[in-house]
């Protein structure tokens, strides 16, 4: 049975509604020098820890993108020994693939990097990552959430070489951390699932950054609803029972 | 005075000539689940540890790119407590900026990400990284090595949006790990320097991958010469004395 769940979140604005809703408290002990922040507590029968990537003090912004996500996932798994990791946050979707602003997706299929283009045989496949996720089809059906392929890069934009990798993997959700979280969970043998709320439509004529900023508050509210519902559904089940 | 030097290397082919030349021995103790490999020993008056990113068992290739570099740098600094980190490896250069195949560059100026394009104010600057390096102008002059701006991405290619970031930062050396190493050394307050041997010319008509494979053995040989010379010069000096 799932006992401890670690929720890895990049931005404070994404994490705060989750922390508030679940009534989690700050926990010290992040290794010296690292910018991450932990909140934890009991949620029903679960122990839940939320880790955020912290801020860059030079620019006052959250440590988004994949390098902080990878390192945070490692040190937080080391501390919390979770039975399941959720990589939770906001993301882009495609109207042409059925996404609406505010939709929440659970990962269906592998976590893919769409910006690691290494044109040497075997390195090309390595670059795409393809780290496995939990089969959460049953969970998604119970909560009426969508499922889709989540792909990751270090950028908010989508130039053609990245777009072609997204198309090749059937991307439904485009964000900036999940595959890095997935690399570390794969290394350490911890089951992982993405929970991503759509802030912007990649195939909409409005700039991604503009949509992101306009829809962030609404999407993070939906995200906290979904994470709360996911935790409630998970409580008392095994990972295999999420399928 | 510099006592311990950690050399972070992505590929076995880059690390092996250094390990052989310095007579380093394998050292156990990499945290469970992580693919990294340590070799260490005494080199003159220095303690030197070389860490490599290990391989992806699914594809049989080295764990190149930035996520392994960040995590490896963290766990290896945690183990070795170095006074100086070298991010060493092969890289691309530009004939138009004076590079030849086989040249070895030391970092001059900040370590920059050229593939984290985040078009939101403050996040854009965060994305580029710009993590400080050691001033090694004196060291470079004594060893007749070039110095230049090193920029990093997760890809071997250079599409236009990345190229424009490289131009804006005056990139001399293009590779796949240094800025991720630099993020972690900056967080932990450890001085860092890049040592990069040129395998390919970005502005040459031959494909990067083809040049890389043709020149890898020669460039890694030059890299091991340079790392050996750098360590010999560093021995008995402080970091400030490298300027």
Give a topology summary:
The structure is a homodimer of 243-residue chains.
Chain A lengths: L3 E6 L2 H11 L2 E3 L9 E7 L2 E7 L2 E2 L4 E2 L3 H15 L3 E10 L10 E4 L3 E3 L9 H6 E3 L5 H7 L2 E7 L7 H9 L2 E5 L2 H11 L3 E10 L6 H27 L9
Parallel strand pairs in A: 1-4, 1-7, 7-13, 8-11, 9-11, 11-12
Antiparallel strand pairs in A: 2-3, 3-4, 5-6, 7-12, 8-13, 9-10
Helix pairs in contact in A: 1-7, 2-6
Describe the structure.
Two copies of one chain form a homodimer. Chain A is α/β, with parallel strands linked by helices and 243 residues long. The first copy, chain A, is built from seven helices and 13 strands. In chain A, helix 1 (12-22) packs parallel to helix 7 (208-234). At the A-B interface, helix 2, helix 3, helix 6 and helix 7 of A face helix 2, helix 3, helix 6 and helix 7 of B.
Largest sheet of chain A, in brief, is: 5 strands, mixed, barrel
Largest interface: A-B, 49 and 49 residues
Radius of gyration of chain A: 17 Å
Q: Tell me the span between the first and last alpha carbons of chain A.
A: 14 Å
- Helicity range of the residues of chain A? 25-40%
Q: Tell me the total number of β-strands of chain A.
A: 13
Would you tell me the structural class of the helices and strands of chain A? alpha/beta
How many individual helices of chain A?
A: 7
* Mean pLDDT across residues of chain A: 97
Give the overall form of chain A.
Answer: globular
Into which percentage range does the β-strand content of chain A fall? 25-35%
N to C succession of SSEs of chain A:
EHEEEEEHEEEHEHEHEHEH
Oligomer: homodimer
Q: Can you tell me the residue ranges of chain A where pLDDT is under 50 for at least 5 consecutive residues? A: none
Kindly report the spatial arrangement of strands forming the biggest sheet of chain A: 7-12-11-8-13
């Amino acid at each position: 049975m799932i006992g401890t769940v670690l929720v890895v979140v990049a931005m404070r604005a994404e994490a705060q509604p989750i922390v508030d809703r679940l009534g989690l408290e700050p926990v010290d002990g992040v290794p010296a020098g690292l910018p991450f922040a932990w909140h934890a507590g009991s949620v029903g029968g679960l122990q839940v820890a939320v880790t955020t990537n912290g801020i860059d003090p030079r620019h006052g912004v959250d440590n988004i993108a994949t390098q902080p996500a990878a390192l945070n996932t490692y040190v937080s798994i080391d501390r919390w020994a979770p039975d399941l990791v959720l990589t939770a946050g906001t993301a882009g979707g495609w109207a042409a693939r059925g996404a609406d602003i505010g939709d929440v997706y659970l990962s269906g299929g592998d976590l893919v990097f769409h910006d690691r283009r290494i044109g040497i045989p075997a390195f090309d496949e390595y670059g795409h990552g393809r780290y496995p996720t939990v089969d959460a089809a049953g969970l998604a059906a119970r909560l009426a959430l969508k499922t889709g392929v989540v792909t990751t890069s270090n950028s908010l934009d989508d130039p053609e070489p990245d777009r072609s990798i997204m198309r090749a993997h059937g991307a439904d959700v485009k964000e900036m951390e999940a595959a890095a979280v997935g690399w570390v969970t794969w290394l350490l043998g911890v089951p992982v699932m993405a929970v991503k709320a759509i802030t912007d439509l990649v195939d909409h004529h409005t700039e991604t950054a503009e949509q992101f900023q306009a829809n962030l508050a609404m999407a993070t509210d939906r995200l906290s609803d979904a994470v709360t519902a996911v935790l409630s559904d998970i409580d008392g089940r095994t990972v295999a029972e999420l399928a």
